[in-house]
Amino acid sequence: MSSRRTTLPAFVASLVAALALVGSLRFGVLAIVAPLALVAGLALLARPEWALGVAVALPILVEPEPDWGPSTVPSRLYELIPGTKLDPLELLVLLAVAAALLHRRATGTSGGTLGPIGPPLVLLGLALVAGTVTGYDAGAGPTTIVNAGRHAIPLLVLPFVVVQVVGLRVALRTALGALLALAAFKGLAGLGALATGLTAGSVGGQALTYYNAPANALCMFGALFVVAATVRRLPLPLWMYGAGPVMVASLVLSYRRSFWVATALALVLVGLFAIGRQSRRLGLPALAATAVALFLTLGSGVGSGLTPAAGPGATGLGGRLASLDPTAISQSKDDRYRIGERRNVLAGLREAPVSGLGLGVEYRARYPLSIGSIPRDYVHFASLWWWMKTGILGLVGYVWLVLAAMWAAARIVRSHPDPRVRAAGLAAGAGLVGYAVAETTATFTGPDARSGVLLGTVLGLLAVAHREAVEDERAPLPA
What is the pTM of this model? Predict the structure, then answer.
């Protein structure tokens, strides 16, 4: 029996290789890639933990810019597959969903529900349907509507996959360790790319590690976990202690002011609430820190991404720090653009406060904009993006999702039996506050599929940890 089990996979692999080789003589490289991709897809369907790992790791590791890194090949992950309407990232997410459903059907077991995170995700799904109807009624074409809403799908479905896989196939601590390892590698890769000149962005002529949000957000969450565990005096592997400074350095050298403010706020919150019982007395300082961060980002606009540094000729880290001065906003047309953009979006929403403008519909420029070439189907403010695209349902769903995730994190910190998971819950809760603050200057949750993959994974892990915390609370005390 064992020889058959060994021979059959080898025979299938040899047959596929032979067919691919013969086919390549007639159809070229595609004949090699297609059979291998088919075999890989079948393998992922059979192992949901592999499917989830690939669907999460690849979008995190691969940057979308062709000129980031030593090769242009990985960025094709975000190009449409010939003959289909899907890109490889979307296909991987669909494979992860299918693998989770097949495993659930085959075993008759379920990873449980999403807890407090489930209802707002359902509401956001309904909001996308409403936005589709509104956009179609406003004259947007089907392709335009699909392209406007498709990037939100990973955010909605990956939490379900994580809940079904983690706990049934992979232990929660193993999943958390894998995510932290990804964060450490991402930080190290960013510093390496910066040192070798393989980065894709610059600010004021100064090269940076990462411009896109997922890498910076992941490094922020990873660094917060190391800080939370250290403050709580939890023993960690040596590589985790070494990874902390690497992730912080990658964040600093990204020159993304929004993530500087987000990380600084989250670190304050971690420091306040990691103290334990005294944290109840620190609610007011925590609120004050949040208010200051919101003022720096929302009120003054200085949380934006790549903009000229304050003052003529000011570049590098010192120039970016100087640009945090709220008075520097008048010197940056990018920051002024964000303010003008919000005025125009809010003017349009006053005319359609319930339905919003709809997916695939641009806002009308009633007020002048400092930059005229940017498409008007996007707004640098997440809650306004959801409101504009999907109406009041999207606005409520987005705010509810942030609050529900913070509620789940608070219960994990209070009740989970594993101290490392409690530290992870603290890092996730504080990081989500910072992430929400960063999204007052740019929208990642919704229009960016890669950010949806990361946030959907974090939300799924929060749901698993929340369920375990609730089960531990309800467990009977030993006699």
Answer: 0.85
pLDDT digits (tens, 9 = 90+) for 227-246: 999 988 899 999 999 999 99
Residue scoring higher pLDDT (322 or 83): 83
Q: Exposed/middle/buried for 42, CB within 10 Å: 0-12, 13-18, 19+? A: exposed
* DSSP per-residue codes, 92-145: HHHHHHHHHHHHHHHH-------GGGHHHHHHHHHHHHHHHHHHHHTT--HHHH
72: amino acid identity, one letter: T
Mean pLDDT confidence for 137-144: 93
Nearest Cα to 306, choosing from 376, 217, 385, 204? Answer: 204
Where do the structural domains in the chain lie, given as residue ranges? 120-474
Q: What are the two backbone dihedrals, phi and then psi, of residue 80, each rounded to the nearest 5 degrees?
A: -65, 140
| Residues 6 or more apart in contact with residue 478 via CB below 8 angstroms | none
Q: What's the one-letter identity of residue 367?
A: Y
In DSSP notation, 60-88 reads HHS-S-TTSSS-SSGGGGGSPPTTSS--H
